[in-house]
């Protein structure tokens, strides 16, 4: 299953320049696991002012990318209808390797728990076969 940018925009509220998911390439049947892609290019405005002379995709935006892949997954679930997902906690995040222009970040997220509107996901981002970032993200579902 390939989900293009238009279907991503129909599912999550993020928009340019803050939409950090280019494609969803996998979702399992019960919406507990999802894989998304972010293509990092030299044309991204954030790279012009972040560590000039050494283009590195910011770690905070890498975590946001992981959260957006997770948000896509959560918004597929029936209990998320009419809700927004807000960050509640970011735990155990580890950065293993810098992400640079030309990299394709492939992020896998898995729903760990869902209780009373608080959902926890485990996320892992890779470039090729190497893990670049991983962590546990918690969000709260709120009415909008």
Describe it for me?
This protein has a six-stranded antiparallel beta sheet with strand order 1-2-4-5-6-3, with helices on one face. The model has no long low-confidence stretch (mean pLDDT 94). The protein is α+β, with helices and mostly antiparallel strands and 144 residues long. The chain has helices at residues 5-11, 45-49, 59-75, and strands at 23-27, 33-39, 83-95, 104-115, 118-127, 130-143.
Q: What is this structure, in a nutshell?
A:
With 144 residues, this protein is α+β, with helices and mostly antiparallel strands. The chain has helices spanning 5-11, 45-49, 59-75, and strands at residues 23-27, 33-39, 83-95, 104-115, 118-127, 130-143.
N-C termini distance: 29 Å
Identify the CATH class.
Alpha Beta
Quaternary state reads single chain
Please give the largest β-sheet.
6 strands, antiparallel
Element-level helix/strand string: HEEHHEEEE
Q: Figure out the total of helices.
A: 3
* Average predicted confidence as pLDDT: 94
Total domain count = 1
Shape: globular
Radius of gyration: 15 Å
Within the CATH hierarchy, at the fold level, what is the topology? Thiol Ester Dehydrase, Chain A
Low-confidence segments, ≥5 residues, pLDDT <50? none
- Give the CATH H-level superfamily: Hotdog Thioesterase
Structural class by secondary-structure content: alpha+beta
